[in-house]
Request: fold
Amino acid sequence: MLFTVTPLYALPLAVLFLILWFRISGVRAATKISYGDGGNTELLRRVRQQGNFVEWTTFVLILMILAEGMGAPALYLHISGALLLIGRIAHPFGLGAIDNAAHPLRYVGNGTNILATVNLMACLGVNILGL
Reply:
């Protein structure tokens, strides 16, 4: 099976992953903290930005691969891929807002991830049930 849609989103997401990783490495180098966060709130924030990215991106890309492999329509895959990409771009900015748990970009990031997941769950369910 040749996957044509999922890689279109996996590539820019991989670039974002590296950007988030470099941001952590920069703080680690400047503060000489090699593991953990050493009580540095900026390092903790950046670690969580990347951690949240990894948690959602891995899960949704796996669902996308499964759905694409089962023959889900490309439109639905593009919807989930676009939602995931938008959310993963927005969320670090919302999580970067100091002491603002209700920052709108956090809602955008998490909301788009949930919508992408539900869309892919529907695609998988339809294919599994043969509807």
Remarks:
- The mean pLDDT is 92.
